[in-house]
Amino acid sequence: MTIDEPVDVRAAGGVVWRPGARGVEVCLVHRPRYGDWSLPKGKLESGEHPLRAAVREVAEETDVRAVPQVRLPTIRYRSQGRPKAVDYWSMRAVAEGGFQPDTEVDEVRWLPVDEAVRLISYPHDAEVLAGFAALPPVTATMVLVRHGQAGKRGIWSGPDSGRPLDAIGWAQAHALGELVALVRPVRLLSASARRCVQTLDPAAALLDLPIEVVGDLDEPKPGQQPEECVLAAAARLVELAGAGEPVAVCSQGKVIPGALERLTGRADDFATPKGGGWLLAFTGDRLLAADRL
């Protein structure tokens, strides 16, 4: 199928990895219905975000809890005559349960990447493995989001920093909370505006974490140079990445694009809608990937 052809079937999955005696091992599943070896994946449920579906399907098929890190190539093909697209992420395994064979998946194998490429049944899955193998080691994962919708500035009578989320903004915050929880952050950091803190409230409730208010993530104040705020935010993100632990950060629309341009070294389209965000992966202090949520 062509890239611009409408998709009838959406699915998501992951290249799940763990350290092994012979280096990095990835997880393949055997499906008795098809007699094949493939990457764990499955169809999206109604209204489900692809990233959430990927983590869920990996857990259901392998009994592995995994943290998404970097988006991998999307695979497009025809399944039973219908155009299908599968989104993949690299995922670090953080917990394994007791896998029980069933009619969908009857065997799970952990293999070095080169052995997995030889065993896997489909060339398009081998392409995804090749994309994974080309990645440098990911040392830190971060979710960076923009606050949800907060009404119109012109009709809010108080200070702008106190403007709260509206009904749509709260719905966006709850949707973001589920995505934030997927990376299992150990810290939640927010710009000082009320709407930013509120955007992380659902994630804080899910994860039982406090929200740390950080002025380095704020938009420019009157008389302040925008570049000053961009540099401060970018420096804060690099500092957080250097700790090597997953975190979630909420900032503002006049900060996020410039900070990502600074970290990537390229003038790309980093405009971020309200309630939108990015999955960031770092290798050391270098931003390896910025993938839209």
Automatic annotation (TrEMBL):
Pfam families the record matches? His_Phos_1, NUDIX
Q: Entry's SMART domains?
A: PGAM (SM00855)
Task: Tell me a GO biological process for this protein.
Answer: ATP biosynthetic process
> Known Gene3D superfamilies for this protein?
Nucleoside Triphosphate Pyrophosphohydrolase (3.90.79.10), Phosphoglycerate mutase-like (3.40.50.1240)
Give the Nudix hydrolase domain ranges. Answer: 7-133
Record flagged with keyword Secreted? no
Protein name listed in UniProt: 8-oxo-dGTP diphosphatase
- Highest lineage ranks of the organism? Bacteria, Bacillati, Actinomycetota, Actinomycetes, Micromonosporales
